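Record 1 of the preview.
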Amino acid sequence: MTFRFVDLFAGVGGIRLAFDEVGGQCVFSSEWDRYAQKTYQANFGHLPNGDITKVQVQEIPSHNVLLGGFPCQPFSQAGHKKGFEDTRGTLFFDVARILDFHKPEMFLLENVKGFLGHDKGNTFRVVKSVLEDLNYSVFHKILNARDFGVPQNRERIYIVGIHKTKLGPFRFNFPTELSLPTKLGMILEDSVDSKYTLSDNLWEGHRRRKAQHKLKGNGFGYSIFNSESRYTSTISARYYKDGSEILVEQHGKNPRKLTPREAARLQGFPDTFKIPVSDTQAYKQFGNSVAIPVIREIAHEMVEILLNPSARKPLDIWEQELLISRDSEPMIKMN
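->
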C-alpha cells in the first residue's frame, strides 16, 4: 500500500527523496527558484510548479501527506485571533489553505531552530494556533543532523500534524538519536580540483578578520576542520560566498572549500543525485536543503502511523506518559 504526498517549497527535493524511499508517491510539487527547479527536474523527471501563492487549491491533487520547509516570516496581524487572516501575506498562509481544503491525514513542516523564538515567539504561536484550529494534533521537536549519521551540526525544528478526524487524536513519537559515529572524512572526495583551494588573498582575508574579531572578544570568523573532525558547523545558502563556515584543512597549502558533491553528501544526498547547475547555485541549493537522514527517520515514524492502525497510541495514554517523559514536545489543544 502506498500513500500520496505533496512537496511544497521543495527546493531540490530533499524532503521528497526521503518520502519516495518509504513508498510515497509525489502528486504535486512547488518551487519558485528556477535553478532549484532545474535540479529538481534533473533528478525527479518533472518541473515543479512555480509560485505557490498563484496556485489554486483545487488544482492540487488530493493527498495523504503534506510536506514543506516553509520560510519563516513575521505575522503583522498576529494576536488578533483572526485565524487565517493572521497569516495572510505570508507563505504559511498557503500551507494553511491547502490543509484546510484537502485535509490530508498528516503533515511535516521543517524550519530553522530559531523559528521557535522568531518575532518574539509570535510567529510560532500563530502557526500553532492555526494548525490546531484545522483539527490537527500537532507535535514539534528540534533534531540535530549530527545525531543521525551525517558529520554536520545542524539543528532544525520539525513539526508533525495528525488529523484528528481522519486518523484520530493519536500521539507522534519523534525518532531518537541513531548514535552513529561520524567523521568529516566520510564525505570527503579522494581527489579535489585545485580551484576549491583558497587563494592567498582570500585566506589572508579570513585570518585577518578572525584576528580582528578575537580582539573584540568574540568568536566570529572562519571555521576549519579536518578528516577526523566529528562534524562541521552548519552549511548555509551563503556558503558560495567564501566558504568561511566550513573550511577543510590541507597539509602544505591553504585550506579549501567543500566541493558541491561534498556539500550534497554533508546533507545526506546520495552520489547518484545529479547536480546540473553551477557551483554557486549548488552551494545555495544544498545550504538551503535538509538533512535527509533526519527526514528519513521521521518519514518512517509517520508512515507507521499512517498505514498501520495498531501503531497509533491514544493521547490520553500519552498524557500519562508525559508525567515521566518529555522527549516529545506536544502542541495540542485538549477539549
